[in-house]
Amino acid sequence: MAEQKTKPTEQTVTSFLESVPDEQVKKDCFDLVKLMEKATGFPPKMWGTSIVGFGQYHYKYESGHEGYSCLAGFSPRKQNISLYVMGFDKRPTLLDKLGKHKAGKGCLYVKKLSDIDQQVLEQLVKDSAAYLQERYPDKQ
To answer: What's the pTM?
Structure first.
């Protein structure tokens, strides 16, 4: 089986976020660290070179593919901030209240935190962590 590419690293979250060139995005990212740490109960950790993740879970698919991923996370990208949360498709009323965003599979995209309701985001992150911990109870 191929080795998992995105996994926890020793890079510090602070040094990564300090390297974000856009000052507003940098501030938003530091605010996201506080929000996601509170929502998940886990400290931030770098996953790969550009994802700030919180907690982890072990997944194993019917195909036999398995690995670890963070319960929730985010990454400042060129066009937007990618928020990695799962199960939000099961909470359409919350998503409707979130504010200006785009949704992909397991990912929400926002330009800036002021575009969204941060209390709604916090609830989505809590729900994501609970959803993944329930679906994949093996916490090795």
So the answer is: 0.90
